[in-house]
Amino acid sequence: MAGVDFEDAAQVEYDRNQTSSSPEKEQALVTRLGITAEVTRLGITAEHTVIDLGAGTGNFAIQAALTGAFVHAVDISQAMLTYAQRKAEIAGATNIKFHQAGFLSYEHQDKLADWVVTKNALHILPDFWKMTAFLRIAAMLQSKGIFYLRDAIFSFPPADYEASINQWIRQVAKPEGEGWTTSDFEMHVCEEHSTYEWIIEGMLIRAGFEIVEANYTTPTYAEYLCIKTS
Ligand SMILES: C[S@@+](CC[C@H](N)C(=O)[O-])C[C@H]1O[C@@H](n2cnc3c(N)ncnc32)[C@H](O)[C@@H]1O
């Protein structure tokens, strides 16, 4: 684990701080993934097996489970899993299995998945290990299975790195006590492993994925919808 210590129970607070994930937003994502993927296959349904890697406090896993899909929620932090499990119980989402494991250690024992999802977690790994994670993700998916990735991924021109990073932090950092602060984002850039979109895309292709949709939502965030082709 790099950067933030997610084993620290206090980090579960991010659930309240963050603006990018809430039950409503994750429900919208579950629905949107279905619509986006309709050209190739149906969206997440009760017949599907979904793996959420770096599931955190479980917002996406719970909403995916409420569609009837069977969800494997994987996170390296027991503090996160304990919190997510409690939320799942309250939401009445029983078709979730929680696993304390990581991108590089989770052994998928169930039938091959229809979906693997990872949001705001992959930047924890340096690029060499991201490639390993992509290969492992491809191996968890059935042929034509779908991989959805969202993370802090940089699409600004590399020569503009200083201005782009500073602008990003100015735009998103919150005052102390109200969410992620300037020093949290500075730590992310210094100690964690967000990288450029052309590196991520090269890795996805080499892992056997076809990128069917790439959204650079801002110069510092991206999301990908990929299909396992080989
Ligand atoms: C910022 S949270 C994001 C959680 C959730 N996906 C979301 O979008 O709200 C990052 C999560 O990744 C987990 N994590 C850190 N290192 C990991 C690893 N090597 N493998 C899997 N999960 C990891 C952390 O414990 C944390 O729960």
Automatic annotation (TrEMBL):
Protein name from the UniProt record: Class I SAM-dependent methyltransferase
Pfam family, one: Methyltransf_31
UniProt entry tagged with the keyword Transferase: yes
Domain of life of the source: Bacteria
UniProt keyword terms in alphabetical order: Methyltransferase, Transferase
Record's keyword annotation contains Heme: no
Lineage: Bacteria, Bacillati, Cyanobacteriota, Cyanophyceae, Oscillatoriophycideae
One Gene Ontology term from the biological process aspect of the record: methylation
Methyltransferase domain residues: 46-181
PANTHER family reported for this sequence: TRANS-ACONITATE 2-METHYLTRANSFERASE, TRANS-ACONITATE 2-METHYLTRANSFERASE-RELATED
MF (Gene Ontology): methyltransferase activity
InterPro entries: Methyltranfer_dom, SAM-dependent_MTases_sf
